[in-house]
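Sequence design from tokenized structure. All designs in this work follow the same two-part layout: the structure record, then the generated sequence. An example of the structure record is given first.
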């Protein structure tokens, strides 16, 4: 959940105009719009008497009730602010990703992780191609193949680390440590993108890493290797963020997604063949559900960040920790330790400050 969602946030933040041109505005990989449709010249309730007397022309009963509710919802949706719509998209993505994450944790001890990732990526790529078949040649074309391959590799590294942590440590702990990705991005922005970071953000970054150390809970027995892998997932996720920023100037969002699929499938082919375990029919079902939910979550979160403002959606993002804690407790009997909550509070505070500070720095002076 942590790794996949970080991918989608970056795709969503890339370019709103790019999304409108390439992926459509309201449907996955197609053209639609959230803008109001032209109003009908006459309401359904005012249908002519002649038409109303013809069986099947006017709606009645349950179908009429449903149609009325749908019209009211469309009217409300058109009047909602972009940030409200983005928030709904985001919360919906959390619920969808919760299912995917739970299935990763359930299937992980039985099926090799590389095999799960391979099946997930194949299903996701097929869904993307099915919705954008006519634009496939344009999607594959890229002016920066080297950077596309690099992004695919760091994406794979982020997934391997992040999902390994999800499988073997409490969901709440893995999710909380994953929030440290924003802190790594601050450092990468200075080293790679040559961005200027003020003193306040450096202080917030240092405080945030203190929270990460508290969550790692070092002891005489050493650090938990899977907790460290969660940190590694956040680090590689920051590399993904930087690479997406570098690609944003020239590459379409769907081009980035299709190249990710190509790279992951090629790299995972041999390891998957080597460790392949034949899933049972039930496991196949869960693998497909995991893949479909992962694709749906990717689209929902991408829409969230393309409709709403990142600074407005950031506080909602941290509700993932509560959802992860609930999922871990109900389905896997996990109870987060006190250091996890203390460290998570510190990391969330530092991350929220950094996101809000970044948002303010983008507002031009009057």
């Amino acid at each position: 959940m942590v790794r996949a969602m970080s991918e989608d946030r970056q795709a969503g933040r890339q370019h709103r105009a790019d999304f409108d041109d390439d992926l459509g505005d309201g449907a996955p990989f197609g053209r639609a719009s959230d803008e109001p449709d032209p109003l009908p010249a006459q309401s359904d309730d005012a249908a002519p008497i002649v038409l109303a007397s013809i069986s099947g022309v006017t709606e009645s009963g349950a179908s009429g009730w449903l149609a009325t509710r749908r019209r009211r919802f469309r009217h409300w949706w058109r009047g909602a602010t972009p940030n409200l719509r983005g928030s709904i998209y985001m919360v919906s993505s959390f619920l969808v990703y919760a299912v995917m994450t739970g299935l990763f944790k359930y299937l992980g001890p039985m099926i090799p992780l590389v095999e799960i990732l391979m099946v997930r990526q194949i299903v996701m790529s097929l869904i993307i191609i099915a919705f954008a078949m006519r634009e496939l040649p344009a999607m594959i074309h890229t002016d920066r193949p080297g950077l596309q391959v690099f992004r695919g590799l760091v994406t794979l590294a982020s997934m391997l680390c992040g999902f390994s942590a999800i499988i073997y440590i409490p969901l709440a702990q893995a999710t909380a440590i994953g929030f440290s990705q924003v802190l790594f991005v601050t450092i990468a922005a200075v080293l790679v993108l040559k961005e200027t970071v003020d003193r306040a953000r450096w202080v917030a970054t240092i405080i945030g890493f203190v929270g990460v150390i508290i969550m790692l809970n070092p002891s005489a027995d050493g650090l938990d290797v899977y907790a460290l892998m969660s940190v590694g997932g956040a680090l590689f996720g920051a590399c993904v963020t930087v690479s997406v920023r570098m690609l944003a100037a020239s590459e379409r969002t769907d081009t980035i997604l299709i190249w990710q699929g190509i790279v992951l499938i090629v790299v995972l082919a041999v390891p998957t063949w080597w460790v392949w375990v034949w899933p049972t029919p039930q496991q196949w079902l869960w693998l497909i559900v995991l893949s479909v939910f992962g694709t749906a979550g990717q689209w929902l979160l991408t829409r969230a960040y393309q409709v709403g403002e990142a600074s407005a959606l950031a506080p909602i993002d941290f509700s993932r920790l509560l959802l992860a804690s609930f999922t871990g407790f109900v389905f896997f009997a996990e109870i987060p330790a006190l250091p996890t909550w203390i460290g998570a509070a510190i990391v969330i505070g530092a991350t929220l400050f950094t996101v809000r500070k970044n948002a303010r720095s983008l507002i031009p002076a009057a």
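The CA atoms of residues 180 and 273 lie 34 Å apart. We note this feature because it recurs in several other targets discussed in the main text.
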